[in-house]
Amino acid sequence: MTSGFFDGIDKITYGGSESDAALSFRHYNPDELILGKRMEDHLRFAVAWWHSFAWEGQDPFGGQTFERPWHPQDDMGRAKLKVDVAFEMFALLGQPYFCWHDADIRPEQGNFRDNLATLEEITDYIGTKMEQSGTRCLWGTANMFSHRRWMAGASTNPDPDVFAFAAATVKSCIDATHKLGGENYVLWGGREGYETLLNTDMGQELDHMGRFLNMVVEYKHKIGFKGTILVEPKPQEPSKHQYDFDAATCIGFLRKYGLEDEVKLNLEQGHAILAGHSFEHEIAVATAEGMLGSIDMNRNDYQSGWDTDQFPNNVPEVALAYYHILKAGGFLTGGTNFDAKLRRQSLDAEDLLAAHVGAMDVCARGLKAAAAMLEDGGLEDALRERYAGWDTPEARAMLESDLDSIAARVLADDINPKPRSGRQEILENMVNRFV
Ligand code: XLS
Ligand code: NI
Ligand code: NI
User: Domain containing 77: what range?
Assistant: First the structure.
């Protein structure tokens, strides 16, 4: 017995690039080998429970547009129906993973004790579905930004009772992630930041956040959770300023609080855009420090200045993102989470599937293009050549020397650098051959 939500829709399969069926993969072919590894194992796709199942279609100007059979999401029966539909969708799409917040999967009870009881009940139910289907949990997280108790932050809240509630909530969500065999645990600092500095002691808030994250890591080791702890940078929205501004800011924060070997980054394309960066910039910052964990794949509208969380459809952008990921060796525990939601007029079950099919195809094309760029090697050669001067013993010795002796050598050898082309257009043309 199925829920009937996807009635009339069959399992979506790979139809090849010529397929004109509305629901068919044209590029995502899970078993196809890319650089010797299955495409599915490179991409490690995950569905985001919140956007696909929990979000009801609200925007700042209007309320619910989706009227799903599991709305309103205030009772356990409907929460279980939502689980049934979710696993039907994972099966139709062949999605290997999903991601969730506590608030997406259980009804909000208004107090910790009852939230915990409903979280345990629903994650047991999800666990049974996982066993039957083989679908896995990429990451779990806690929603510490929607309910009014979090309006001034979670671990950075001036009220110690909110800090305590946050600690209890995160403990319960790490426990649930551990129980479900989750491969990562994410902390997105939804309201860890400020609306105005007039009421904010930033130094104290950052210290609390640093201590909180250390407690998370200590707890992970205490219970033997083997997944990776990830933080997700975002510069603003919902707060005016968020402390996890971008990859570089997060890395500085992690180092300050001694967490650089314990915590990695979950990078989201839309957040990169909000921070004024490209996605590949954020990925390159993280990989340069060995701190790339996982990605939230979506796209923002470039005009609206808002975290629009649209499904990705720009192959050249996605290709450059995967190029940097592949160059760094690919995902370990991370994957590609579709942190993306339908447009609020896309009411049908078919829209939900088409959004994922299209996104999976865009990522598959991006991955193939990235692999082809690496195999071709032209970009890598150009990069190596640009820095080749540093391969000489004199150049390397300079890094061990000092300003005095370098200055003496410049005078003695009459060193006078000749500018060389950066060849940007040639490199861009090279990329264009693959995307
Ligand atoms: C919101 C974030 C959120 C996190 C999980 O902007 O992207 O969806 O990924 O809390
Ligand atoms: Ni995200
Ligand atoms: Ni986001």
Answer: 33-376
